[in-house]
Request: fold
Amino acid sequence: MGETEYISVAETSEGVGGTDSVGKEVTLPVVELLTGRGFVTGKSGSGKSNSASVIAEKLLDSGFGLLIVDIDGEYYGLKEEYEILHAGGDEECDIQVTPDHAEKLASLALEQNVPIILDVSSYLDESEAEELLTAVARRLFGKAKKEKQPFLLLVEEVHEYIPEKGSVGECGRMLIKIGKRGRKHGLGICGISQRPADVKKDFITQCDWLLWHRLTWNNDTNVVSRILDNEYADAVEELNDGEGFLVTDWSEAVRRVQFYRKKTFDAGATPGLDDFERPDLKSVSDDLVSELEDISEEQQARDDRVAELREELDKKNSRIAELEAELQDARDLERMADQFVNAMVQHVEGPAPGRTERERMRKKATERLQAREAADEAGSNGDGGTEAFAAMMDAAPQLSAGPAGTDGSESNESDAADGEGVEESDEQEESDDGKPFSADRILEALRSAPDAPIHGSVSEQSDETIELALPSDFGEPSTHQNGESTGDSDAEIVDAEEDTPDEEPLAVRELKAAIGGLDTKTRKMLSFYREYGPSTPLNAHFAAGGDGDRTLAYAHNRELRTAGLIDHVGRGYYDYCVADLLEEELGERVSDTVISEFTDTIEEQFLDA
Reply:
């Protein structure tokens, strides 16, 4: 490193801020440049990049180290005279670098005093360029604390990293950190921008030296007015190319200076009509490039390995997807098999009734037997009266009124299919005297009741009309065919039903609230039980869109069971029992028809969607 203490960069010029001695040499102290904070500004074409290049050339002439952050690819012309490492993102650079090279670049700069141009102009992704600069600046700051060597970081278009408006990113925060704390470690920074109004004012006001080239926008000249004076704010608009106001902490006066022209190739000059001739550029040491290439090769090897691992991962993920599809198919087949077996079992044996269903069927069978006994007693005594008649009418829907010789076997077969034993069906086919219940038996019993005279007869070969002449207590005569009312009497004689209540009973409202409060999957499980009958929680959960998880399936199933919406029917099977639940709650107050209507309403509202 040279022993130069000052570098000559410009001459004084006349005008506002000028001196009497025009053309006097202007020098800058090297240590203040290398370790301090500087700011160079001016509109495009005013000479700011030339002035920065002159300062760089003078430092390089004396062997001082610096790193230039080149935003527009303007500084590679320095290689015409100097052996400087040009690192960036394209093939024009000596070496293509990434954030993985940051440690090595900082080491070359501070430990081996290698001047570097960090060219980020060729990175199409701005975030990639910013990541690289952040990594290099962080490594420089870390090494500067150890090396304690004066070093200058020169950053073009600094407003992109330290904006006046908007948030400052990680890179900007790192540059501000260097500006505030780098000086005591020997690390200086110089920011360059064509729009001072866009640069964070905290950075500008903390600078040790500033160079103001020509500015014309009001927002920019207002900054000059705030920092210098209105006089300079007016004069800055009239400055010539390369001319500027130089303000430093080591000189009280504001000097109007004309910077020298740089001696290396001006890569930032606006292209003209003349042929462009690229100068011969000096090459850097092969050893430097080879060290960086080793890092690139290592990085490429890592990238290749990562790509290989990703390919393997993709293959494994594809295989996992195939196995999951096969597992799903197997579950579908298992569910279909279970449904098929359940259907076959129900076809052969009938559905397995739950506890509530069995109790209801036993209750109805008891009522039918009691009705038959009452009818037999009325027929034998001859004075059954209205009470015997009403009891028989209650039992009439369960008795056969078909052709002679029928004994209710069709109804009994239905009862058997519903789960009743064959012995109970045989017991219902005949009365205590061994005679089958038929229409003639009913007529015979009714004729013995003096207060329920009968007009007409019934044929034993076909379904004929039984016309009953009833006492006034039962209203007008009513004609019944096949057990269904065809009249308009106020009180039906056969299978009389209660009217639906004007307001839903509390049990119905509570049941609606219970089903409506279920989550979608639990409600779908309830719909599955309703449609397919007895099944397992796993099948119901799978049919409801679940993944067959046993814990989740039984958790949803437990919610249905504790609400009384399903009942365990044995061997791990559960069955739908909403209608039975209503029967238990309302059976003594409303008819089966009304209960059926309530059930239909609930199912249509919550389970048919």
About this structure: DSSP finds 20 helices and 17 strands in the chain. Confidence is low (pLDDT under 50) at residues 391-439, 449-498. The first strand starts at residue 6 and ends at 12. The chain has four domains: 33-264, 290-349, 358-485, 506-606.
